[in-house]
Fold:
Amino acid sequence: MEYVDSLTGFRLDGRRPNDMRQIRGEIGVVAKADGSALFEMGNTKVIAAVYGPREVQNRSQQVNNQALVRCEYSMANFSTGDRARRPKGDRRSTEISLVIRQTMEACILTHLMPRSQIDIFVQVLQADGGTRSACINAATLALADAGIPMCDIVTSCSAGYLSSTPLLDLNYIEDSAGGPDVTVGILAKMDKVTLLQMDAKLPMDIFENVMQLAIEGCKAIAQYIRGVLLENTKQLECRRGV
Amino acid sequence: MVGLSEGEKRFIRGGIAQDLRTDGRQRLHYRPISVETGVIPQANGSARVRLGATDVIVSIKAELGKPHPLQPDKGKVAIFIDCSPTAAPMFEGRGGEELSTELSFALQRCLLGGRSGAGAGIDLSSLVIVEGKVCWDLYIDGLVVSSDGNLLDALAAAIKVALSNTGIPKVTVNLGASPNDQPDVDVSDEEFLQFDTSGVPVVVTLTKVSRHYIVDATSEEESQMSSAVSISVNRHGHICGLTKRGGAGLDPSVILDMISVAKHVGEQLMSLLDSEIAAAEASAEDQ
Structure:
């Protein structure tokens, strides 16, 4: 199958190789949570909710010098194209929960909140490739909304390599093509990579290009997320009448 | 889950006794309801309903299946509700399973009628394509995104809206030569049939707090309830299903009184939903 049109250079959904899908972030979608956000990347749509910092629910998990960060990833029954009733806590979602937890833990200043717990719940409403990245971006927005101290914002984006072209932000069709899929998460301001995953094989020099493309994507998302947060802060300020 | 002080509890109960609740509503008033359709493009129909801070999404998917041998002239409908941990940390892991099952069964009772399919709000015989051979299996999946009480009413309303938004693909059937053959089915991607939702009931939950009962309780008010009765009412004012929750007993005369109140409130809710559906469809067409 031709993933990049050899004549026009367009991808299956009409994007150029280094185009991202339409992204949209919205803060405060779950009224009862301490912080929440919705993040869309094209048709991929996820909600993240943050509860905490609060008292540790399970005393044996308490850490005396830092906060306990927990994360749960779940997919709605209707999120995928064909309806599948998946059991909770299957291996894939456990792995993604772990990845999100580790990535977010890297940016939360956990030492400021000892003996407390922060819960991050991400719920996939629609999956169309790049759920991992979308979840991390949503979690960043939700953590910021909850007012949890962070050293930087984490953003994530994926890139792949199909038809001898590096492609940014793969959708489901491109993702399931079997080519390499590089997911990168960066700390935007410090310019450090906190998450890096790849499947399939790729020559060293091409990998560098693909990773660089994903990092560029992350930076673009970081800029957008900063804009959303700024807009949200302005609205809060306006409501307080400052 | 809801931590309330003694003073707050008295405030809630006192307000209900005086017909002025903590958010300024009267006992039989609903919170503002907002409706959005077509939120899940991959589904045949979907809706998001917000009732105050309660937020639910319902998606409907139709798949081709085989009718049950005992009811060859009826399609199949299944309702699954899932409580997302985003709604409350207690739904984490398997924590939401109990509530999810309770809600699924309550909705099945209210919308799908008896085991034979008699008295169902959804016309099951309209889902049959070839009697005894092919029918539509309708999967109704609900997701509780945010929970602030009265989930059952919100979910039932969302199912009603999602069904009105559902388009079932038109199918053409080529019957095989011998009657035992499985017929060939050609599903159209362009032509869709609308669903008749006039018979789908709404659910009105009356929550009893001390001596009075209220509609559309918030989670704070639900924490003070002694018992609750959910009544599903259709357009003709008929009762389609009934569930009582909570431990405290109810006087039979009170139940009859509640039913007549629910019927009255249900009619208002039904007309409100109808106008919301029309508005949501109009705005969806504009886009």
